[in-house]
Structure formats: C-alpha cells, structure tokens
Write a structure and sequence with these properties.
Layout (H helix, E strand, L loop, with lengths): L1 H27 L1 H39 L4 H37 L2 H33 L10 H12 L3 E6 L4 E6 L12 H10 L1 E6 L6 H7 L1 E7 L12 E8 L2 H22 L1 H49 L14 H42 L4 E5 L5 E4 L1 H7 L18 H21 L4 E6 L14 E8 L5 E7 L1 H22 L1 H17 L6 H32 L7 E3 L1 H9 L11 E5 L6 E3 L1 H26 L6 E7 L5 E7 L7 H5 L16 H11 L3 E9 L2 E12 L1 H5 L1
Parallel strand pairs: 12-14
Antiparallel strand pairs: 1-2, 1-5, 3-4, 4-5, 6-7, 6-10, 8-9, 9-10, 11-13, 14-15, 15-17, 16-17
Helix pairs in contact: 1-2, 1-9, 2-3, 2-9, 3-9, 4-8, 7-8, 9-10, 13-15, 14-15, 17-19
Length: about 750
C-alpha cells in the first residue's frame, strides 16, 4: 500500500509538471491558449486536488497514529515537518516575488502610444486603399471615353486595349439593365459573370463613377493577397447629338499590390488583437496569477508529500520492528517483513525475523502434536457417531457427559439436548436410568473382588398408552464399563427385531408341533363320536338320547374348532416365500373391494386411491390376503365400537398414496374402533396376541411376515384426537418399482 501510494503520488506530481509546462506554452501561443487552456487548467486543478487529498489522508493517518501512541509517530512527524519547511518556504518566497512581477508587468504591456500607433496604422491603410481605389476609378473613367462612339458589336477590341492600359484583370461593359455587352479578361470565359447591383448602377449614373474594394475579408492573409482587388464602375459618356441610346457602364477589376494588402491586414489584425487583450487584461492577469498559484500548490504539495515519503522510509524499519514485537507478544509468529538494506536497521530486522521464525517452528511442532491428538479424537468420535449401537458417557452421579446418534435413535429421545443433565431426566427413561445406576454401583463394589471389567444386562423399555409398533417397547442389551477419570461408559443395542424374530420362529415351531401332534387324533375322535351316536341312536331312553346327541354335537363342533385352529397355525408356519412380480396396487385393492360391497359387508369400506401410484414388486396372492386381514380386523373393531356406543358404524377407510420424497407407495387401513390397549399395541404383531374373544391372534402376525417378505415397513398406531383414541390405523410402505430399479 505504501509503495502504491508513493508511486501514485509521484505520477501525479509528474503529470502536474507536464501540465504546467503545457499551460505555460498555451499562454505564449494565442491559438493554443484559446483551444487548450481551459482543460489544461482543469486537469492541473484536479491533480492539485488529488495531491491535497493524499496529503489530507496521510495527515489523518499520522494524527490517528499519534493519538494511539504508536511507536515512531512523533519521529515521523518531525521528519515530515523538517522536509516540508525546507520545501515550502523557498516556494512561498518565489511566489510572492513572481506575483508582484506578473501583476505589474501585465499593465505595462498596454500603452496609450502603442494603441494610438496601431489606430493610425489602421487609418493609414484604409486611406491608402481608398486613394488607390479612387485613382483606379478615375483612370477607368478616362478610358471609358474611348467607348463613346463605339457600338456594342465593336466594343470588344476597345476593351482589350483599355484592359492593357489600366493593367486590369477583367473589363466588362454592361447595359442599363445590368446585362453584359462585351468583356475582356477572366469574365470572357464565364457564362454568368458577377453583375453590379442596381444600387451600384444608380450610384455610377448619379456620380458617374463608383468603386469598391473586395477580398480583404478572406480568412487567411495568403488568400487576401491573391483575391484583394478594386472594382471601378463608371458611366460611359454618350454624344449629346444623334440617336438616343441607353446608357452603358464600364467595370474594371484591378488587383491590389500584395505587399500593401499584407501590411494592411497585419496592421488591422494587430490592432484587433491588441484591443481584445486590452479589454481582457483583467482575465489575463487572473490567468497568469492562477497559473502561478497552481504551480505553487503543486510544488508545495509535492514537497510535503515527498517529505512524508522520505520520512516514512527512515521511520519504516523502526515501525516494522515495533509491529513485529507487538505481534509476537500477541502470539502471532508468522514470517516478519525484512528491510532489504545493508545498514544497521536492516540487519536488526533480519535478526528479528530469524528469531520469529525459530519460535514459529517450535510452536508448529507443538501444534502438530496437538493436531495428531485431535485427529485421533476426531477419528474416535467419527467411529462412535457411526456405530449402530448407542453409546452414552456418564459421570458417577448419572449425568450425561456425551452421547452418539445411535443412542438417540435407539432410545427415541434427543440425547444431545440433555447433555449435562441426569439420564433420569430424559422422558420415559427414569426406570432405565435407575437400573443402569444400580448395575454400575454393583459393578463398582464387585469389580475388585471378581476382577470384572464390565457388566451386561438386558432391558425392556416400557411403551406409553399409544404409539407406533417398532418404536415402542424396545428390547435392549446394555453393557457398562469404567473409564479413566471416574467416567462411566454405557453401550447398548436394540434387540427388538431379534426378539421378535425369535418369537416368530418359536411360534412357527409351536405351530408345526401342534399341527403334527393335535391334528392326527382329531379325526378319530370325531369319527368315534359320530359312530357312537349312530350305534346308540334309538336304543336308549329319550332323556339319555338327548344327552347323547348334545354331547356328540359338542364333540364334533369342538373338533372342528380345533381343526380350524391347527390349520391356521399350519398356514402361518408354512407360509410360502413370496414370488414378486410387477403389479398395480390400486387394481389389486379394487379387486378385493368387490367382496366388501354394501350388499356383503355390515360396515362399508371407503377407498381413496392415488392415481399417481407406480407399480410395485409383490405377490398378488399374499397381498390380497394382507388386505383381507386388515379390512376384516377394521370392520370387526368398528362394529364392536358401534355396538358399545349404540351409534351407526362409521365406514372403514382404505387409501394409497405416493410419497414424492421417498418414492414409496403407502397402503393405509383405518377404522373407528376402540383402538389397541398399550400392552397389546406393543406386541400386536406377535402370534396369538389378540383383543377378540374368539380370535387366534395370527392375522397381524401374517401381515407382518408378508410385509417383511416384500421389504415393506409396517406401522400400527392408535388414532388420537384431543387425547381421545378414535380408532386404529395400519400402514404398509412398499418400495415402488422405480425406486427398486434405482
């Protein structure tokens, strides 16, 4: 910045000097002055203003540095003042002397005698030209007598003779109407020569002779010397006796001597210029004094600016060292600037820069070590954040010190927002926090005796009154260990899916064993009861016959019920693998709804299907079974609620919708029943869990198993309005065929 300002100031000074030189040249050359003085003066003033602005900016900076007490400010001010005084005082003295000289010398340029001489010269030139014109007119009049007895047809030879006698360049004989009769000279070759005006003809007729001088008003002196001429117009004398003829006029054009014309024009121009300058002497004085004042300003501004720059060059090494010391004291060990000079100050700056570099190298080594530690900590944090398991660090009092995203996902609570607070303050985790604290206390007591390094225990998080299956009633297995410094590490995994899979597998095994162990004896029992009834029919008294028939009927009905139960368990255990093909879910729903028309169903079904739904990959037979199970459950729940409230049953609603963000197709069935109790909602998809008096609890279990085969998510929630359960809702979210392809 300093070098840029210095170079800019030097350029402005140089431009100002060049402009001043051009301005001086303009004052000595009138034409150049008239053309360029205004813009030269303006540019000089602009340069002066820029220099003044630079000086003001520098003075302001220096004042601010002095006010802040920066090192070297007073020294810089003294040096600038010394250089400024040395440059300004001689300039002021020269300005005062020059001002007096210019203001007085301009007045001496304009003298009364000079003005009189110029006026006399102009009058003399005018009289000389008039005398010459009158003489040429007299000679022309004398020569016109030769044409008195000459007719128009023979006038051409006479005109040639008169032309030679007068030394004229052109002779023309005009009639009274201003038409040429004969000519000699240049007008002979002109089709339309310049004719005299009617006024000139009248003057010539009255005074018998008139003349005029032409060509003195041309722009340049050279043209005036070539074109200056006298045109004399005289009346040709006619005889007093004889036939009356119209008057004729003789016009002679004689060129003026070039020397006379040049002198007359020079005197006239000198007089005009003298008069103009005499009238503008005040402006001329102001122009010269303004130029002188501008020169002073440029010189003073340049001198002061040069003083500041030179002083800054002397103070700069000291300021550089002072800034470097302050930066080092503030902890900034970046490379310091060095003055490239061979004096002592330059050597001092180089030594200081070397010392600063050594300090920077030492600190860089420490920072590298700290960076490695931070990188290791960051790697550990990254690993912790990407673990599927939940990790929580607690202090001895159970306060959360840190947690990872896995803990937030598994516990379904914003753990980061509770850092610095006890784990028991997290909503829904009070019992879990108490159990964890107890396990840590027991582990701390027994660790020294048994050499344990950790403890492990399963937990079951309770579900609230309503919620979503899969997000409530979480099964955990937690492990705890002590960290250095007394902190406690808690690591836990969500094993809800594992538990659910184990239960499903166990129920499948139970179903297979029931089908094998129970179904085989059922048929002989039924056949034996029917055979016994047939053998004893009519052979026992009526009372015993009624008891027999009732007992046989009961046996047969219960055997049929047992068979149906065994068949349902068998179907659940032997559910075949899904054969996925492209299908239109809306079309499948419409196909199933034909069986749930108003003529077939006690509770109507309303459909709201999204026409934008793409195809999905699915097994049509299994999905049809899913829709049947969901609709039947929804109708049963709605009918049950209607019977309890003695109100008409509200329609069951089935809908499909395409999610634009996840590109998944969602199938939803909602009812207006009593909803699910909390303990049922938590385990609704497990086999043999039901709210129906005669239900087997396999409907939703089959739905869950088929959804898993299709890669669909299943959500079961109670519909709550104003904290009142208004029914239940089951949703299946299928990946679309487009999403599967992607």
């Amino acid at each position: 910045m300093r070098w840029a300002l210095g170079i800019g100031a030097a350029l402005m000074c140089a431009i100002g000097l060049v402009l001043l030189f051009l301005l001086t040249q303009a004052t000595n050359n009138r034409d150049l002055y008239e053309r360029n003085f205004a813009w030269l003066m303006g540019v000089n003033v602009l340069v002066a203003v820029l220099l003044l602005a630079v000086l003001a900016w520098g003075a302001l900076r220096l004042a601010m540095r002095l006010k802040r007490g920066r090192f070297g400010s007073r020294l810089l001010m003294k040096l600038a003042g010394i250089f400024g005084v040395v440059g300004v005082i001689p300039g002021l003295l020269i300005y005062v002397v020059s001002y007096q000289f210019v203001s007085r010398s301009i007045e001496s340029w304009f003298d009364v005698r000079v003005e009189g001489a110029l006026s006399s010269g102009v009058s003399l030139a005018r009289v000389t030209l008039d005398t010459m014109g009158a003489d040429i007119g007299s000679k022309t009049r004398e020569s016109s007598t030769q044409l008195a007895q000459v007719p128009d047809a023979a006038a051409g030879l006479v005109l040639d003779r008169i032309k030679d006698q007068l030394g004229a360049s052109d002779i023309v004989l005009w009639n009274a109407s201003g038409q040429p009769v004969a000519s000699a000279g240049q007008s002979r070759f002109s089709l339309n020569p310049d004719r005299p005006t009617p006024q000139q003809l009248r003057n010539a007729r009255q005074e018998r002779m008139t003349f005029q001088i032409e060509g003195l008003d041309d722009i340049t002196t050279a043209k005036a010397e070539d074109n200056a001429r006298v045109k004399a117009l005289v009346l040709v004398s006619t005889p007093t006796l004889g036939l009356l003829v119209e008057p004729r006029f003789l016009q002679a054009t004689v060129s003026l001597p070039p020397a006379l014309v040049a002198n007359a024009i020079a005197v006239q121009e000198a007089n005009r210029e003298y008069q103009e300058r005499a009238l503008a002497r005040g402006g001329l004085r102001r122009m010269y004094i303004g130029t002188l004042t501008l020169s002073l300003f440029l010189a003073v501004f340049g001198a002061v600016l040069l003083a500041v720059l030179l002083g800054n060059q002397l103070v700069r090494p000291l300021l550089l060292l002072a800034d470097g010391v302050r930066e080092v004291a503030a902890g900034n060990l970046s490379p310091k600037a060095v003055i490239q000079s061979n004096d002592e100050l330059g050597g001092l700056t180089r030594s200081f820069a070397t010392m600063t570099q050594q300090l920077a190298d030492a600190r860089a080594a420490v920072e590298r070590s700290m960076g490695e530690v931070d990188a290791a900590r960051a790697n550990l944090q990254t690993i912790q954040d990407n673990l599927t398991a939940g990790v929580i660090v607690l202090d001895a009092m159970g306060t959360i010190l840190s947690s990872n995203p896995g803990a937030t996902r598994i516990l379904r609570a914003p753990m980061a927002a509770f850092e610095g607070k006890p784990l028991a303050d997290v909503p829904g985790l009070a019992e879990f926090a108490t159990a964890v604290q107890n396990h840590f206390d027991e582990f701390h007591r027994e660790r020294t005796h048994h050499g344990l390094d950790h403890w492990q225990h399963p937990f079951e998080l309770d579900a609230p009154p309503s919620g979503v299956v899969g997000t409530q009633g979480t099964s955990l297995v937690a492990r705890g260990a002590e960290l250095p410094g007394g902190a406690r590490l808690l690591v836990f995994d969500d094993i809800s899916e594992i538990v659910s899979a184990q239960r499903a597998q166990a129920w499948g095994e139970v179903a297979r064993r029931l089908a094998h162990e129970i179904k085989n004896p059922l048929t002989p029992i039924q056949l034996s009861a029917e055979r016994l009834a047939m053998k004893l029919d009519g052979k026992v008294p009526p009372a015993e016959q009624a008891v027999l028939n009732k007992s046989v009927k009961t046996i047969v009905e219960q055997v049929d019920a047992m068979k149906r139960l065994v068949n349902e368990f068998r179907d659940y255990a032997r559910l075949p693998a899904a054969e996925l093909h492209q299908l239109d879910l809306n079309a499948l729903v419409n196909d199933v709804l034909h069986l749930y028309g108003s003529e077939n169903a006690t509770v109507t079904v309303d459909a709201d299907l999204d026409p934008r739904n793409p195809h999905i990959n699915g097994d049509a037979q299994q999905l049809r079974q899913v829709i049947h199970n969901l609709l039947q459950n929804a109708q049963d729940a709605t009918q049950q609620a209607a019977e309890q409230s003695a109100e008409p049953a509200k329609p069951v609603r089935i809908s499909t919708v395409l999610s634009d963000t996840s590109n998944r197709v969602r199938l939803t069935v909602s009812d207006s029943g009593p909803g699910f109790p909390a303990h049922i909602l938590q385990r609704a998809f497990e086999p043999y869990v039901t709210t129906k008096p005669r239900g087997t609890g396999l409907g939703l279990a089959v739905v869950k198993k088929i959804a898993d085969e299709h890669g669909a998510r299943v959500d079961l929630v109670n519909r709550v309005e104003n904290d009142v359960v208004k029914g239940a809702q089951v949703s299946l979210s299928f990946p679309s065929d487009i999403a599967s392809a992607l």
